[in-house]
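SAMPLE LOG
Freezer: B-3
Tube label: C17
Construct: single chain, 272 aa
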Amino acid sequence: MNEQRTPVSEYLRARRNVLQPEDVGLPRTPGRRVVGLRREEVAALARISPEYYVRLERGHDHQPSAQVLLALAQALKLDDAATTYLLRLNSGWSPSAMERSPASQKIPESVTALLRTLQDVPAVVVDGNQDVLAANPLAQALQPASMQPGRNLLLATFSAGARDRVGETWRSLAERLVASFRLRSNPNDPRFRELLANLLIQDADFPGIWARHEVADLSFDTTQHRIEPFGVVTVSWQHFQVPGTDTYLVLFADPPGSPAAAAIRYLAESIR
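STRUCTURE (predicted):
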């Protein structure tokens, strides 16, 4: 039977391939050569027929029910963000879907004013593609190579400079950012397609990370920044979605008295 790849079928296949029997409470039989789970194992865990699951993975059922998808999400150990993504794939992101409206990228004046008043907290505004739309002076000083309007945080992360700066933790950071990019971007957006093609062609690590189909709602995390004379400092950040837009306000802040807070305070004083 010929396969007709659909976004849902590709996602199911990718997530099945990264799970091991032990991950879902199944025994590993001697001599097992399958990469990931077998199709019939996923079907049994989701309590659907193996034949129907095969049809789904081969793209021959274009409208599986939400009930089936939720059962598969549970079988594949998907978290809330990944389950939402699976349901969204099934709801109709097609090549003919409406592309993102430029108005959805417009930064409200209230957010622009907030950036001007935040003098002691690095702050940037990014969109779902991780393009930097705006940044206050302290954010630009914190990471001059990436936190400038017009730059892209994902491209910056896959640069040689980021690899050197972050070191051993680089791959973990890159995987998390790619997972967030997959969740928050719009595959019908020309900018998304441009970034994806660029990274697939020009970066040796990106295709393997992208092929895992990881999804994550990266609302908070940490990144490393060099702030002299403190050296490399780990700084916490958090995303806040700007209501009515597909943009996010990102604030970098750590508790008072922490090394990161002291380094950022020093940086803020040095640029005044």
